[in-house]
Every structure is written in C-alpha cells, then in structure tokens.
Amino acid sequence: MIEFRAVTKRFGDGTVAVDNFDIVIPSRKITVFVGSSGSGKTTLLRMINRMVDPTGGDIEIDGESIMQKEPVSLRRSIGYVMQNSGLLPHFKVIDNVTTVPMLNGVAKKQARAQALELLDTVGLSRSLADRYPSQLSGGQQQRVGVARGLAANPNILLMDEPFGAVDPIVRAELQQETIRLQHELDKTIVFVTHDIDEAFLLGDQVVILEKGAKIAQVGSPNEIMANPASEFVASFIGTDRGKRALSLKKTESGTIVIDSEGRGAGVLVGGSEQ
Ligand SMILES: Nc1ncnc2c1ncn2[C@@H]1O[C@H](COP(=O)(O)OP(=O)(O)OP(=O)(O)O)[C@@H](O)[C@H]1O
C-alpha cells in the first residue's frame, strides 16, 4: 500500500504542482491518475520514487516513510516506465533490460537469462535482444520499456503515459498486455494518463485530478460513471455526450441502446429494460 498524506510540492519558481494531496493506493491493483495537462500527475508519480521530493507532507510505502529511505536504492527498487520508452539508444535491448539488476549486484549471466525471460513476459521475441532501440517499432520499444521496468522484480511499477506515442491499434494491444501482466505478476501499478477511456479500461481505482492535483473524484470506473461527483467530472468523463451518454429506444423490432447522437450502440442482454 502506498499512502500520500497531505503531500504538497511547490517548485523553486513558486508553482504549486500538488497541493495537500491525500490518497491510499491499494497493493496489487492498478490505480490510475487521470487529468488534463499540468494537473500534477507526473509530479505525483515521481514523488513515489523520490525523483521529486515533496515540500510538505509524507508518503509511506507499506507503513514506512519514503523520506527515511535512500533515494537511489528506493528508485532502483521501483519500476518506472515512461512515454517514449526512455531506452538508452546506444545500448542493445538486452543491455537496456539488464542495467538496473546489474547495478543492484545481480551477476551478468543471471541478469541476461532473466532479461530473456522478461522479453517472453512482455510478448517480445528473444531474437530482438541484440537490436538497438532504433531498430524496433514504437510498440516494441514500449514493451522493452515495460520489461526494463520489471527487471528488478519490483513490487511497484510506475507508468507515466507509457502508450501516449503509439498508434491506436498498438495502444489497445499494450493496454490489454498491461491488464494481463498485472493479473499474472500481481504488481501494484500506478498509471498516469490524460485519456479517460484508458483510465476506465485499466484502473481498479481511478483518481480524476484538477489543477494542483486536487481530487475531483476517486473510485472504481463503475462508481464514477454511475455517480459523477460534479459537473466537472461528468463533463470530463463524457457522461453528458457521445458514446457514454446512452439511452434506450423502443423500435418496432425491439428495444435498443442508442448514444447521444441517436446511433445504435447495442442491446441490453440478461437484464431488465426498466
Ligand atoms: N521542475 C519544475 N519546475 C517548475 N514547475 C514545474 C516543474 N515540473 C512541473 N512543473 C509544473 O507543475 C505543474 C504540474 O506538472 P506535471 O508535469 O506534474 O503535470 P501533468 O499533469 O503530469 O502534465 P502533463 O500531462 O502535461 O505531463 C505544471 O504547472 C508544471 O508546469
């Protein structure tokens, strides 16, 4: 469990990126921070592994304050996957994946064997191990980024807009892979996105943020969709329009579900129409 308690981050120029933020992030689930640009998502994520230190409040991992931990070893014990994969361009795939375990003292041979297994885990062929990042597609690079994030076998995986730069089809694949990996590996994943559809697809817990990381609503996707806490949330998640604003329409051949534009979206199965 990760707990933020009254966490504030004021940068040197006076910008308050995070203002008095509280949340409990449960273990072995996916928590998604979602909000528009500048709402403080990345700052929140980076405070968990002390890439950024809070200026107020405290963050605990399993009851221990991270401020008591040595930043470099903390960072190496938590996986981090960023947009554009963040791979080292002059390192082969295999060396990108083995870097952190070897810094942690794992012998090279063992680190390489584990890295090849991780390529299997993230759905990449082992034949790509000796390529350089520039010789991979964007989606493959992101998979290597995930393998690298998992390399030190962390309990916690931080993912910062990891699929923002890939095309929609590959993105959908990578989203499904993330769900599969979480089920298989049982990690605590904290995921940042500005895409509410991605947040609802991946999140067990979704945290909708406004400027200053003010929580507009926190809950499961179903809770938020069924009961948006404010007009801001309703508008952000789109329950007032498009494919999430569904209604029933009786037609001569039966009742169908339509979206806000009147397009057929499906039928109700197994439930009451009332
Ligand atoms: N090093 C810094 N110095 C000063 N201000 C910063 C710094 N890093 C971030 N900020 C500011 O803090 C606020 C939150 O930034 P942050 O990157 O956390 O937002 P975000 O929600 O992740 O945005 P995006 O989706 O665009 O990445 C913004 O106003 C940003 O300009």
TrEMBL record:
The keyword Translocase does not apply. One of its GO terms (molecular function) is ATP hydrolysis activity. Gene3D superfamilies: P-loop containing nucleotide triphosphate hydrolases (3.40.50.300). SUPFAM superfamilies: P-loop containing nucleoside triphosphate hydrolases. SMART domains: AAA. Residues 2-237 form the ABC transporter domain. Keywords: ATP-binding, Nucleotide-binding, Transport. It is an enzyme of class 7 (translocase). The keyword ATP-binding applies. Transmembrane segments: none annotated. Pfam families: ABC_tran. Its EC number is 7.6.2.9. PROSITE patterns: ABC_TRANSPORTER_1 (PS00211), ABC_TRANSPORTER_2 (PS50893). Belongs to the ABC transporter superfamily. PANTHER family: OSMOPROTECTANT IMPORT ATP-BINDING PROTEIN OSMV. This is ABC-type quaternary amine transporter. It comes from Rhodoglobus vestalii.
